Amino acid sequence: MGNEPLVSIIMPYYRLGDYLLEAVDSVKKQTHANWELIIVDDCSPENPARDLLRDERDERIHVYRHDSNLGTAAARNTAASKSSGDYLIPLDSDDKIAPDYVEKTLRASKEADTGAAYTQVQYFGNSNRIYIPSTDLGKIFSGHFPCNTLLVKREVFDSVGGYKDLKLVEDTEFWIRIIEAGTKFAFVPEPIYLYRSHEKGLMSTQQPYVLPNFYRTLLMHHQSVAEHLQGVLEQWRDHALSYSVNTKQDSQQFLSSAEQYAKEESEYAYLKKEFEILKARHESLAQRVQRNEKMLGSLPLIARQMAFIALKKLGR
Asked: What integer is the mean pLDDT of 252-264?
């Protein structure tokens, strides 16, 4: 394998036994040979990963299991902690990567000297389209979600503390944090990450939780949202107005939600400003108290009492 860097592919697994072997097979076909696959079974009650891979002999594949169900974010973090590569690639157990995914993202990242690299996304299964993620925070805050699979340097992953414990959109929140940290991205304009669209996927089975977790993510990053608020509102408005006549009511509700968020963000900014003013006043008063105490402490007892009375009358 020469001097090729080790790339760790981290894969959370829970129940999707029908697709796990396909995901693993896509990793085994990589043209970049120096990889390891770390699978963390998040206490799946059926089709444990070890059972499904009991005949697997590739020593680059390692399987671990949680004692309890902790969620996708925790499974990814566990996999990262068990890995050894200089680069990480999160890959869900129902998705796949093209044979040259590792090779091309790694090359793009090294040539551009970036901390991460991503590609176009090829949907398959119940959908057949190409999706292009974005690293523009304004677009992400507007609901243009990034993909969950990318190549990222370990030092970048570790510097932001891995994934946050969110039920959904933890991958979106992770992208936001590494973008806020100033990470540079390389883009490979080819659909070599294959995203499976199916009724058993989390985005289908947990659909009611998507928006609440996304809004929670917005609140976690309210300062960045405020910086991009104008663009976010414009995109929300354009999106709402693009609805068909049949969904006019939905579009109005969507637009109303956007405007309500803007109002709340504006109120937050006002309160934050007032808090900063109060904080500055408090610090000024604290400094005056310290000066007075220091002055009084240096005087004899009688003079100290007289000075205290004088200061009290002067309102200081």
From this structure: 58
Instruction: Give the dihedral of Cα atoms 110, 111, 113, 118; nearest 10 deg.
Output: -70
Query: Do 178 and 115 form a contact (C-beta atoms < 8 A)?
Result: yes
pLDDT number for residue 209? 65
d(CA 4, CA 67): 35
* Closest-CA residue to 32 (of 57, 60, 12): 60
Nearest residue to 170 via CA among 220, 98, 96, 97: 220
Q: Which of 86, 104, 95 is nearest to 6 (CA)?
A: 86
Give φ, ψ of 40 to 5 degrees. -115, 110
pLDDT of residue 241: 56
CB burial of residue 130 (10 Å; 0-12, 13-18, 19+): exposed
Name the burial class of residue 164, with classes exposed (0-12), middle (13-18) and buried (19+) by CB atoms within 10 angstroms of its CB.
middle
Q: List % helix, strand, coil for the chain (3-state, nearest 5).
A: 50, 15, 30
At residue 123, does pLDDT exceed 60?
yes
The SS3 of residue 196 is strand
Sign of CA dihedral 49, 50, 54, 56: positive
d(CA 220, CA 215): 9
pLDDT at 242: 55
Domain boundaries, the chain: 7-219, 227-270, 274-314
Collect contacts of 48-52 with beta carbons under 8 A, ≥24 apart: 49/13, 49/20, 52/17, 52/20, 52/21
Nearest to 54 by CA among 79, 24, 34: 24
Q: Does domain 7-219 have CATH number 3.40.190.10?
A: no
Among 23-32, 74-83, 212-221, 303-312, which is the least confidently predicted range?
A: 303-312
The gap from C-alpha 63 to its chain's centroid, in whole angstroms, comes to: 24
Cβ burial, residue 116 (10 Å; 0-12/13-18/19+): buried
